[in-house]
Amino acid sequence: MTRTIMVVDDDSDIILSVQEGFDDLNSEYKIMGVESGEECIKFLKNDQIPDAILLDIMMPEMSGWEVYDRLKENMDWENIPIVFLTARTDRVAVNAGNFLGADYIEKPFEITYLKNRLDLILNNIKKK
Predict the structure, then answer these.
(1) Are 44 and 63 in contact (CB under 8 A)?
(2) Following DSSP, what letter does each residue of 39-106 receive, concatenated?
(3) Helical (H) or strand (E) element with 34
(4) Where are the domains of the chain?
(5) HSE of 101, CA atoms in CB hemisphere, 13 A
(6) pTM for the whole thing?
(7) Confidence band (pLDDT; 50, 70, 90) for 128?
(8) DSSP assignment, residue 4?
(9) Residue 37 is inside which H or E element, if any?
(10) 84: number of CA atoms within 13 Å, CB side?
């Protein structure tokens, strides 16, 4: 079964790294990349609902925190697991990200670590 992961990051190199990394791992994940919070919301409004979202925090116009808030305000999107994937490593961000999201992963990251974390999150949801 193929699962769709939306990567929301204003750095296209991060999106490409995740896509190529998952392709190299021959994973069952399809990676959908969007470069802004606005684009993320637009896809969701068009019923392109992923199994999980990898969300950067530091983005122009709409931060990852703002995207998170918008997702949680909508009943159709509120249960999508959010994994914060960010270069922000200060204690406030780490604590908030771990509390709010399904996971918090700092950049740079190892692709196998990222895949393993997603596997755990999505397999735990399936068991419920």
Answers:
(1) no
(2) HHHHHHHTT---SEEEE-S--SSS-HHHHHHHHHTSTTTTTS-EEEEES--SHHHHHHHHHHSSEEEE
(3) strand 29-34
(4) 3-127
(5) 26
(6) 0.93
(7) low
(8) E
(9) helix 37-45
(10) 25
- The length of the chain in residues reads 128
What is the separation, in whole angstroms, between the first and last Cα of the chain? 18
Q: What residues contact 70, with CB distance under 8 A and at least 6 apart?
A: 37, 41, 62
Q: Distance between CA atoms of 105 and 7, rounded to whole angstroms?
A: 13
Is pLDDT of 127 > 70? no
The token pair at 94 is 């780490």
Question: CB-based contacts of 65: which residues, under 8 Å, 6+ apart?
Answer: 57, 96
How does pLDDT run across 62-79, given as a tens digit for each residue?
999 999 999 999 999 999
Q: Under CATH, which architecture does the 3-127 domain have? A: 3-Layer(aba) Sandwich (3.40)
pLDDT digits (tens, 9 = 90+) for 9-30: 999 999 999 999 999 998 899 9
Distance CA(123)–CA(84), nearest Å, equals: 18
